[in-house]
Design goal:
The chain has 70 residues and is mainly α. The chain contains 5 helices and no strands.
Length: 70
């Protein structure tokens, strides 16, 4: 709330701090979303990606991805 007052705008996205996931992502050279186990962290990263893309929903996975479970 103080930060929002300071910048004069509402914070649109807030990703929870997950130090273990950040370290694991860096060590494995993977995306944070791929190694984050915290469901809230993953959900907020997804919301951030959707917001940055300017879309309200993610595109449907290809049939190959659905078959492979990815």
């Amino acid at each position: 709330a103080d930060f929002e007052r300071g910048i004069g705008a509402k914070v649109a996205f807030s990703v929870p701090f997950d130090a273990k996931a950040a370290i694991a992502a860096a060590e494995k050279a993977k995306a944070l979303a791929d190694v984050a186990r915290n469901a809230k962290t993953r959900a907020e990263l997804r919301n951030l990606a959707i917001g940055l893309a300017g879309s309200t929903e993610l595109p449907k996975a290809s049939i190959l991805k659905r078959l492979l479970g990815k």
